[in-house]
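The data layer described in this paper is built around a simple, fixed record for each protein. Because each token names a local backbone shape, the row as a whole describes the fold. We quote a single record here, exactly as it is kept in our systems:

***
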Amino acid sequence: MLANHTFTGASLATASTIDGMSRADPKRRNARLAAIAGASVAVIMSVSSIVAAAAAAGLDDIVVTATRIPEPADRIPAAISVVSGEELVARGARDLAAALSLVSGVEAPAGGDAGPSSAVPAFWGLHEFDAFLLVVDGVPWGGAFNPAITTLDFTDVERVEVLKGAAPVLYGATSFVGVVQAIHYPAGEAEDAAEVAFGNHGSIRGSASLALPPAGGYRQSLAVDGQSMGFDDRREQVSNERILYRGALDLDAGTLRVDADVTRVRDVPPSPVLRAGTGLTALTPTDANFNPADARIDEDRYHLALGLTRPIDWGTWDTLVSFARSNVTDIRAFLHPDLSGTADTQNQRRHIDDGYLDSHLAHPWADDATVIVGVDVLYGHGRQTTLNGNSGFTVPLDGSVLPPSTAAIPVTEIGTVDDRRVFVGQYAQVDWKANDRWDVIGGLRVNEAYEHKRATDLVLPPPQLSSGDVSKTMIRPTETLGASYRAWLDGKDEAVVYADVRNAFKPAAIDFGPDYTPDLLSPETARSAEVGVKGSVDGGRLGYQAELFLLDFANLVVRTSSGALANAAGERLKGIEAELRYRATADLAVLASASYHDAAFSRYRFFDGVAYVDVAGRQLPLSPHVLAAAGILLTPSRGFSATAVVRYVGRRYLDEENLAPVGGYATLDASLGYAWGRYRITLAGTNLTDQRPPVTSSEFGSQSFYLLPARQAWLRAAYTWH
């Protein structure tokens, strides 16, 4: 890998140390993580004298997700929020849940079927793992399959952009309800900081990022981090490490960029809790773990991206090529919903290749418009073998017995899947600024989606073999049209109203579960509309935005009475969201958001285990009407600092028939720190109210729900030189 050739000797030693960590010896691993953090601090302090302090980017109001080119957020006819890197650092936001906690109308509780390193974001009231698009530095993270949240890292992130709704022109058949893009500092710049932190349950983590000395005109930077986290469930664990290298070189023909990163994830998952009747069962303790003794979700991901930005006579030509390979081991078990204590096991080996190519031209058209014309290709190849032990073991529901290893459980089913996807799009988008008040954005994309899937299923005993080999090609357009109008402008104060419509589609996701699913389903489709207002008052110190939205979702994929997947439902999402950010002083900010969602089935005959029930008009499971958040950030460069974020999630239901209600809950994240010179000490905590409600449903275990992670406390020590 290119990353191994470009790292310094110290970095190679760190990579070797990380790779040699042993799961079986947590104390040794924690000691090595501490050594990594200490070595990172030492390396950074030794070179800090030759590293120039990075200037503040000041890009919080300039975004690229909606247009691929820098554009003031207030002119874009869509709801878009920006979370700065400074805010992420101040709040100690290390995962998607914390990063998006103050964005209006968004939930992203940690955990889910992909493991405790993952999350299941919800936008506009739709709580689906694959309904949003995750992008990192312009690359769809997870490619043509599912968002690769477990390998998302916020070390050295300059800002996070959150676009509500689909991106049907620039990103094609990948998103319905939102786009989240994490943008790192460019090569040659960095957060310029190192941190080590110690938490409860024996948790430890360390991180460092720095701008490396330039080599002639070649700029480069490095970010490294690692963590080992424990939980109330003594078996549950998160252990991951990542190294990211960025380089850039100015050429006569433009600027060449290179990104190389290696991520290693070692998770031990918790068990979801079963629903019994109208609530969660009380027969299993809150943190009982019924996974087999060898349970784990391990992933090794290697990623390389090359980019070239080149000015030509017609404008700016930008090309990005990316390739990633992931190797995954997934071993788990799920209790039967009858609460008998019997569980089905799975032992999976998965290999996923993600490729991405985008090449587009940004052409200034006259003096008031920019035309973006491009083509992109998204490629995915996933291969999996699963060894299932159906009714593999039975254990007491009190969690007192450690289930056996899958090596000791007879294999009763062997399944394979080989899925190859290619999404090709030719797109054009026009951004026309008719005058200082009007901005119109319209775009059209022609999508070509090809998929070939081979699946087999061998059931034992006696041997019964099933197989399927299917292909599908889809060619269809997607469009967007929006306009914003600056109704008022007075210095830094303004009011901008906007409206947009979008038409999107998305091929059905592959969940890589243990079940035999040989068919290729029809694509899910969505049509949406927004109207909103955004701007600022009080000399630009108070920023605000609010929107009304409506989305109709068709061909929804659901499970039938046999457990198979089918296009059998529709949904309608509508609501209002609002967001305020007030900069009282240079060191004090107050933030607040609120939303009301009405997310319901528009069509669905649900099988409740006995008969089919028409649930049209019922609220979507785990979709609350009310979401609210408020935060205060006191972040002086010297002396005492403090942050606090309060979130409220309203009443919702666990089931499609709306017979199992769950009450609302509130969480508190807070920190208190002190800074002197280049050093800072911080005491921080998440979910200080220690709420444990169900927040995510399992797609693999019927009537199973993952709980909100319990209270976590951290003592952080940081060194900076900017």
